[in-house]
From TrEMBL:
Residues 139-149, 179-188 have a biased composition (Basic and acidic residues). It comes from Monoraphidium neglectum. Non-catalytic subunit of the queuine tRNA-ribosyltransferase (TGT) that catalyzes the base-exchange of a guanine (G) residue with queuine (Q) at position 34 (anticodon wobble position) in tRNAs with GU(N) anticodons (tRNA-Asp, -Asn, -His and -Tyr), resulting in the hypermodified nucleoside queuosine (7-(((4,5-cis-dihydroxy-2-cyclopenten-1-yl)amino)methyl)-7-deazaguanosine). This is Queuine tRNA-ribosyltransferase accessory subunit 2. GO terms for molecular function: metal ion binding; tRNA-guanosine(34) queuine transglycosylase activity.
Length: 451
């Protein structure tokens, strides 16, 4: 399925907490391969975070945390997770980029609890960086050992090799020239196209390099330092100032989507971003809707996690919200009026068919014989090859293919939205685009409650 999302799809995001058990870090290490190979996507960048954007897993966020670790709810239940536990998972998964463990708190947390969250997260960040520093020292020792004429021994069994974040000699020779270029592409966000990092694709097989020694990483991953602070701007500022000078590749704006007032988002984002270096990327976590993603771009975020396409898929919806601003739109007020009129027309046209200005409800009986693509004009694999009637049939017969096709379409549509925002940035029209998009969505909401 990920192959169908090329070239816009850029990478894969995983929730590191899900690898505390079944499989655990130890079990994954015993396979002798990184998670890339374990899931059949060996050539795609991977981002590991401590939250799954598709799950509401932090309903009790922060309530069971202490100075030693936080309480995580995963597929097999809940458990306490220490920074050491988390880094065990990171070393086993071997992502290119990861966000260290953070003390997430609910949006209504007290100031005292928020201060505690910021302090703990900074302490845990230092612990994670110290562990990576030890890994790098081991690497340097290993390189010197081989340069001084080592006898070719590859440094122990596969588990030890993974824990030291290196590949065996056979793969290191083949990958040495490629690694700096790949790392640069990752930092610039150009490895495999553009987008929000919500998709990915891959090729090859687990055994395509000739053994376990070919599967581990050349070097430790890039670190995105978490910026905390909940709903308090001053704590966001304090957290951002503290991590700004850390030896990290970028920053993760955390603690959003935890029940806080969405009206606070612009202030909270601007307060934190103002304290961060402009030459390092910023990942925004927890802000899921199109409006929230757009606000993140306006405030200076570069990368995003998002469960919005997946939530639409789970409900049987094909996303159809407008992506591109009409060429005639302007800031004189005519654009807003046109947006409202377009939203009203779309709502009226789709009211009887289970559709509105943001989505098509393919559960609706209106589509049982509809031979049109999921969304007219869409170029995704699902829309080019299948009809609304077919996906409607798949949904009603509970076929897994319904979710596969909808996920392809919805992720493609979401990536197209980000492409439109990038085009607006390049054209110097982001403010105009944001005003048009928000008005179109606001008008649609007043007519019919969208997703």
């Amino acid at each position: 399925m990920m192959e169908k999302l090329r070239p816009q799809a850029q990478g894969i995001q995983i929730n590191a907490m899900q690898f505390l058990k079944q499989p655990s870090a130890a079990q994954l290490t015993k396979t002798g391969v990184s998670l890339h190979h374990f899931i059949g996507a060996p050539r795609w960048p991977m981002l590991a975070t401590n939250r799954d954007p598709t799950l509401q897993e932090y309903g009790t966020a922060g309530k069971s945390a202490n100075n030693n670790g936080c309480y995580a709810i995963i597929h097999s239940g809940g458990q306490m997770v220490t920074p050491s536990d988390y880094m065990d998972v990171i070393e086993a998964v071997q992502p290119e980029i990861f966000v260290p463990i953070a003390d997430e708190v609910p949006g209504d947390a007290s100031r005292k609890r928020t201060v505690q969250s910021v302090d703990r997260t900074l302490q845990w960040l230092d612990a994670c960086l110290a562990r990576l520093s030890g890994v790098r020292r081991e690497q340097q020792h290993h390189v010197r050992h081989h340069q001084e004429g080592a006898d070719g021994q590859q440094g122990g069994d596969a588990a030890e090799q993974q824990q030291r974040w290196r590949r065996g000699d056979a793969d290191a020779a083949a990958e040495q020239d490629e690694q700096p270029a790949k790392r640069q592409r990752l930092e610039q966000g150009t490895d495999g196209g553009g987008g929000d990092g919500s998709g990915g694709g891959g090729g090859g097989s687990v055994g395509d390099k000739g053994g376990v020694a070919a599967q581990a990483m050349l070097e430790p991953p890039l670190v995105l330092a978490p910026v905390m602070g909940s709903r308090f701007p001053e704590e966001r500022v304090r957290s951002a100032k503290a991590v700004a000078s850390k030896p990290v590749a970028g920053f993760a704006l955390c603690g959003f989507g935890m029940g806080e007032d969405a009206a606070l988002h612009p202030q909270l984002l601007s307060a934190a971003v103002a304290e961060l270096p402009a030459d390092k990327p910023r990942l925004l976590l927890g802000m899921a809707t199109p409006e929230e993603a757009l606000e993140g771009v306006v405030q200076g975020a570069d990368l995003f996690d998002c469960g919005y396409p997946t939530h639409a898929t789970l409900n049987g919806y094909a996303l159809s919200f407008p992506q591109r601003m009409p060429a005639s739109n302007d800031e004189s007020g005519e654009g807003a009026a046109a947006a409202a009129a377009a939203a009203e027309g779309a709502a009226a046209a789709g009211a009887q068919a289970g559709a509105d200005d943001s989505k098509v409800n393919l559960w609706s009986l209106e589509y049982s014989t509809d031979k049109a693509p999921l969304v007219e004009g869409c170029t995704c694999f699902a829309c080019r090859n299948h009809t609304r009637a077919y996906v409607h049939h798949l949904l009603h017969t509970h076929e897994m293919l319904a979710s596969v096709l909808l996920e392809i379409h919805n992720t493609h549509w979401w990536l197209g939205f980000f492409e439109s925002m990038r085009e607006a940035v390049v054209a110097g029209q982001l403010g105009e685009y944001a005003a048009w998009f928000k008005e179109r969505r606001r008008a649609a909401r007043e007519l019919q409650d969208p997703l």
